[in-house]
Design brief:
Blueprint (H helix, E strand, L loop, with lengths): L11 E6 L5 E6 L8 H11 L3 H12 L2 E2 L5 E2 L12 H15 L2
Antiparallel strand pairs: 1-2, 3-4
């Protein structure tokens, strides 16, 4: 991203119903790069030495997805969309990625 060569995917739209009737279209921009767990944990370790925090961030990242039918799906990269810590971790990763990927 810092080189200026990244091209984001199309903005995803979601229709939100209005109280007065009709719909409002909400645009959700995203970054298509999946965050590598090990690089993210390296960035988190750079900013804290608190063992309990490192433990829970790693557990949260590696927790499987559970589908509607109860099936568990292993995750190896990325942060869950909608997770309260996802924006913080994504921003940390994007801020530090240039350091930890070189």
């Amino acid at each position: 991203m810092s080189s200026g060569s990244y091209m984001p995917p199309p903005v995803r739209t979601v229709s939100i119903p209005k109280k007065s009737g009709g719909e409002r279209v909400l645009g959700v921009p995203s970054v298509s790069d999946n965050i590598d767990f090990e690089l993210l944990m390296k960035a988190v370790r750079w900013h804290t030495k608190e063992r309990w925090l490192l433990l829970y961030v790693e557990r949260w990242l590696k927790a499987p997805f559970q589908k509607d039918d109860g099936t568990l799906v292993e995750r190896t990269k990325g942060t869950p969309q909608g997770g309260v810590a996802s924006p913080v971790l994504a921003n940390l990763f994007l801020h530090e990625a240039r350091v930890f990927t070189t």
